């Protein structure tokens, strides 16, 4: 694990989830996403201590544990650190287990809780450490230690997803974008809102930045390259629509739709994967209902979806 300079004061610690590190003139620092709890945080803290870097701020791009799981350890090591989150993400950042209830649409099972805890290493924060100190809003320019950080609306992946542009022109885009290589291996986008995802992809053209950093990629990208990746993500969204519409040529339940998509895209399947896929497909189905492309019907106490009769 290394602290890599991108440009000016803006640095990066690569990993399963990338962590942005902006180092101020007095060696205080801002983190953009801490990543998973556990050894990663111990290693990052060791790097910060070795370089006499004091963490003063953390910005959560969104509430998923692979992005905010390390907040507790960082704040325990640097008690004066302030954590910033968008309003919609704050609900989950302050209540980590609410996300599991969101996945299931009700109270989580103990199996789901244990599985996700074991996989993500969810830390159980103590009541004496606040998990969010302040709220930030899309479109806001956040001034920290005399430097401006632009907060960009990146909703779609989650309702409250945001990006951060440093004054070096480095844009931490988080999970709005998936690389083409990843799409070639796993052609499925995880999202809360289909329309929100589309709007955020379109919005990228209007953001002033020089270098883009994705949440899960080992490379950094020019703006031109970011827009090319956005185009590939747009195509993936169109493919999702096509597959769902093909499945709905005849009436179909949500479980049947999920099986159709998982079989077509060769998606790995498990109890947890079922919950995650269903949420993303719900985003597609809701969009198609709102656009008046499909309709639902209830027969024999089952809910079906189908193409709308013309």
Mean pLDDT across every amino acid position: 94
Q: Main beta sheet, described?
A: 7 strands, mixed
Q: Give the helix tally.
A: 11
User: Terminal Cα separation, in Å?
Assistant: 58 Å
* DSSP strand count: 15
Q: List segments where confidence is low: pLDDT < 50 over at least 5 consecutive residues.
A: none
Secondary structure: elements and pairs:
Blueprint: E1 4-7, E2 10-13, E3 19-23, E4 28-32, H1 39-50, E5 54-59, H2 65-68, H3 71-77, E6 82-85, H4 87-94, H5 98-104, H6 110-120, E7 134-135, E8 141-144, E9 147-153, E10 162-165, E11 170-174, H7 180-185, H8 194-203, E12 211-214, E13 220-222, H9 223-247, H10 254-265, H11 271-290, E14 294-299, E15 302-307
Parallel strand pairs: 4-5, 5-6, 6-7, 11-12
Antiparallel strand pairs: 1-2, 2-3, 3-4, 8-9, 9-10, 10-11, 12-13, 14-15
Helix pairs in contact: 8-9, 9-10, 10-11
């Amino acid at each position: 694990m290394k602290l890599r300079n991108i440009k000016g004061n803006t640095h990066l610690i690569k990993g399963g989830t990338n962590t942005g590190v902006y180092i101020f003139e007095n060696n205080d620092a801002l983190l953009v996403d801490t990543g998973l709890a556990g050894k990663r945080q111990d290693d990052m803290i060791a790097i910060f201590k070795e370089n006499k870097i004091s963490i003063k701020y953390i910005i959560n791009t969104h509430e998923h544990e692979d992005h905010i799981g390390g907040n507790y350890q960082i704040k325990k090591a640097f008690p004066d650190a302030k954590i910033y989150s968008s309003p919609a993400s704050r609900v989950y950042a302050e209540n980590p287990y609410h996300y599991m209830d969101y996945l299931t649409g009700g109270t989580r099972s103990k199996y789901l809780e244990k599985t996700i805890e074991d996989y993500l290493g969810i830390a159980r924060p103590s009541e004496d450490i606040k998990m969010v100190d302040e709220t930030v809003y899309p479109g806001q320019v956040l001034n920290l230690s005399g430097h401006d950080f632009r907060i960009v609306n990146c909703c779609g992946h989650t309702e409250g997803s945001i990006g951060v542009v440093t004054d070096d022109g480095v844009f931490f885009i988080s999970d709005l974008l998936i690389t083409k290589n990843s799409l070639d291996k796993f052609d499925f986008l995880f999202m809360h809102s289909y329309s929100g995802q589309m709007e955020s992809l379109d919005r990228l053209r209007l953001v002033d930045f020089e270098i883009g950093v994705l949440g899960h990629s080992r490379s950094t990208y020019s703006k031109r390259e970011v827009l090319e990746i956005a185009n590939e993500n747009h195509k993936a969204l169109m493919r999702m629509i096509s597959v769902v519409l093909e499945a709905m040529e005849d009436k179909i339940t949500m479980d049947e739709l999920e099986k159709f998509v998982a079989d077509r895209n060769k998606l790995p399947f498990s109890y947890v994967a079922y919950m995650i896929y269903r949420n993303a497909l719900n985003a597609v189905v809701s969009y198609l209902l709102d656009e008046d492309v499909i309709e639902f019907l209830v027969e024999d106490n089952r809910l079906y979806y189908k193409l709308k009769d013309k």
